[in-house]
């Protein structure tokens, strides 16, 4: 079941459908922080990415989607000190250092959405090689190249 995630009633309905036991909290109206996080997540990652993340959520994984949306996107990404492009480039460097290619792919799209150029993405990944190691960075370059090629192809 896919809910309209801009609509708090749709979100609560999704939560009720997915609720399957005592491990889940009672359905609640999304907080303002969640709503801000959802809007930011959509802005950076794109509607298709966010819709897919929630559509694929089940009773076990929905709490993680809520947590990430509320805490990461609703708190950290909302801070005004760094612009979104800088946040995206920092995120790419950290994901490259952690060897998280799948997450990196999503955030390469986010960096492009936030106005980062291909050259800036390349430089952020190259910079991470010095601190995280070349083998991790090679994998990051492969993942980024795949997303950039798809982006440029339209």
UniProtKB/TrEMBL annotation:
Residues covered by the Carboxymuconolactone decarboxylase-like domain: 64-146
SUPFAM superfamilies, alphabetized: AhpD-like (SSF69118)
Protein name (record): 4-carboxymuconolactone decarboxylase
Organism: Chitinimonas taiwanensis DSM 18899
One Pfam short name: CMD
Superkingdom: Bacteria
GO molecular function: peroxiredoxin activity
């Amino acid at each position: 079941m896919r809910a309209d995630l801009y609509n708090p009633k749709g979100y609560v309905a999704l939560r009720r459908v997915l609720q399957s036991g005592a491990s889940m909290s009672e359905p609640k109206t999304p907080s303002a922080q969640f709503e801000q996080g959802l809007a930011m997540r959509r802005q950076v990652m794109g509607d298709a990415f966010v819709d897919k993340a929630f559509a694929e959520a089940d009773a076990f994984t929905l709490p993680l989607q809520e947590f990430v949306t509320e805490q990461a996107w609703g708190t950290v990404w909302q801070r005004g000190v760094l612009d979104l492009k800088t946040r995206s480039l920092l995120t790419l460097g950290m994901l490259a250092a952690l060897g998280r290619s799948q997450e990196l792919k999503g955030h390469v799209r986010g960096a492009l959405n936030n106005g980062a150029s291909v050259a800036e993405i390349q430089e952020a990944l190259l910079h991470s090689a010095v601190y995280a190691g070349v083998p991790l960075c090679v994998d990051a370059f492969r993942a980024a190249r795949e997303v950039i090629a798809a982006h440029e192809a339209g």
